[in-house]
Amino acid sequence: MSKARRLMVALVLPATILLGFAATAVAGGPSGKVDVCHFANHKYVEISVSQNALPAHLQHGDVAPDEYGDCP
Q1: Residue partners of 45: CB distance under 8 A and separation at least 6
Q2: pTM of the shown model
Q3: 10, 17, 21, 55 from 13: Cα distances, Å
Q4: C-beta of residue 54 within 8 angstroms of C-beta of residue 36
């Protein structure tokens, strides 16, 4: 196997797999739902909304969960 081919397998294949997982996470997975921290009663509550509803939630003060999946 040539160096170029080994490099491609070693770098491109894992990157492609990671992009697939990232796309699924961004798209909200197979159900089309995403988690959002909804501000209600002076605190954040995690809810699951349609990906189409996410922009409206973010515009009125809801936020995305942090990198650990927790709400503020």
Answers
A1: 37, 38, 71
A2: 0.55
A3: 6, 6, 13, 33
A4: yes
**Taking the domains of the chain in order of start, what are their residue ranges?**
1-28, 31-72
Would you state the structure tokens that stand for residue 72, as one six-digit string? 């503020």
Tell me the pLDDT tens digit for each residue of 9-60.
565 556 555 555 455 555 555 578 999 999 999 999 999 999 999 999 999 9
Q: What is the DSSP string of the chain?
A: --HHHHHHHHHHHHHHHHHHHHHHHHHTTTTTEEEEEEEETTEEEEEEEEGGGHHHHHHTT-B---TTS---
